[in-house]
Amino acid sequence: MDHRSINAGLVKKLNWLDLPGDLTLMIIGKLTTFQILTSVQFVCRKWWRICMDPLMWRTINMCNIGIHNSVDYKLEKMCCHAIDRSCGQLVDISIEYFGTDDLLKYIIDSGCHKLQRLQLVQCFHGISDKGLCEMAEKLPLLEELDITLCLEVSSIALEAIGRRCPLLKSFKYNKNAGGNKEAFAIAQNMSNLRHLQLFKNYLDNSGLSAILDGCPHLESLDLRLCCHVKLEGKLRTRCDKQLKDLRDPDAPCDDFQFWGLCFETAYDDEVFDYENEKRYQKQEAQKREARRINSGSSTGKKNNAKSKSKKKR
C-alpha cells in the first residue's frame, strides 16, 4: 500500500477531542486572548471547560488585534472577563489601544497582585500617572514593565513605580516624548534595573549619565532614535565598559517590535476611515434591500392586475 494513503488514513482518524486535556490546554494557550474569547471557546463543550480553567488566564495577551477589531468589539469588557477567569492568578498582561486607568484599577481590585509583567501599548491618553501610581502600590512582584505610546505617563508615575516595585528588572519607556526628567526618575528610583529601553526618548548626555550612576546593575540599554544623546569620548567609553549590550541612537530599528506603530493622529484617521466605510456599506445594504422590497411589491401588483383581468374575461 502507498505510504501516502496510510498517512492520509492516520490523519482522518485524528480527533482533536481525543487529545489529553493538558495538551489541549497548552495548544490553546498559544493563541491570543481575543482568539480564545471570540471563537476557540465555542468549538465544543470540552474546549469550553478548558477555556474556563484559571490556568488558561495566567497570561492575557490583547495586543496585535487590529484597529478594525478595536472598533468592532468591546475590548475593555472582554479583557475584564478574562481577568475574572484568572481568579487572581494573572501574572502577565498585554494591552493595546483600549487601556485606561479604570482597567488598571479593575486588575488590582480583582486581586491580581501576583502580576509580574505588564505591557501597555498605544493607549495614548487612556493611561495616566494617577492610574499607574495607584496600581504600583498593589504590585510588589512586578518585574517587567513596557509603556509604549502612552502619552500621559510622566516622571511622576516612574518615581512611584520605582519605589513601589523593588523587583523591577526590565523597563521599556518608548515613544512617549519623555526626556531628562524621566531619565532622572529612573536613575533615582529603579536601581535594580537590568534592561532599559528608551526608544525615541529626548534625554541628553546628562540624563544618560544619571542612569549609568543610578542603575549599577544595568546590562542592556537601548537608545535608538534618542537624538539628543551624543555617545562619544568618556561617556562612550563608560557605556562600553559598564554595559553588555548597547544600542546607540543610530542603530538600525528594523527589529524593534513596535517600529511600525502609528501615533494618535494616524490611529484616529484609520478609525475614522473604517467607521465611514462601515456606514457606507450599511447604507448600500439598506438601498439594496429597499430595491428588493420595491421590486417584489411591483411584481405583486402586476400579478394582481393580471388575475383581475382574467376574472373579467
Please give a handful of descriptors for the protein shown:
313 residues, alpha/beta, eight-stranded parallel beta sheet, 13 helices, 8 strands, 50% helix, 11% strand, globular
Count every helix, treating DSSP H or I runs of 4 or more residues as helices.
Answer: 13
- Mind telling me the C-alpha Rg? 28 Å
Low-confidence runs of at least 5 consecutive residues: none
How many DSSP-defined strands?
8
Report on the biggest sheet: 8 strands, parallel
| Strand portion | 5-15%
| Euclidean distance between termini CA atoms | 76 Å
Average of the residue pLDDT scores: 87
Helix content: 40-55%
> Which sequence of SSEs, written as H and E, runs from N to C?
HHHHEHHEHEHEHEHEHEHEH
Strand order of the largest sheet: 1-2-3-4-5-6-7-8
Which overall shape is indicated by the principal axes computed on the Cα atoms?
globular
Judged by helices, strands and strand pairing, the structural class is alpha/beta
Outline the structure in words.
It contains 13 helices and eight strands. It is α/β, with parallel strands linked by helices and 313 residues long. The mean pLDDT is 87.
Question: Could you write a compact summary of the structure shown?
Answer:
This protein has about 325 residues and is of the alpha/beta class.
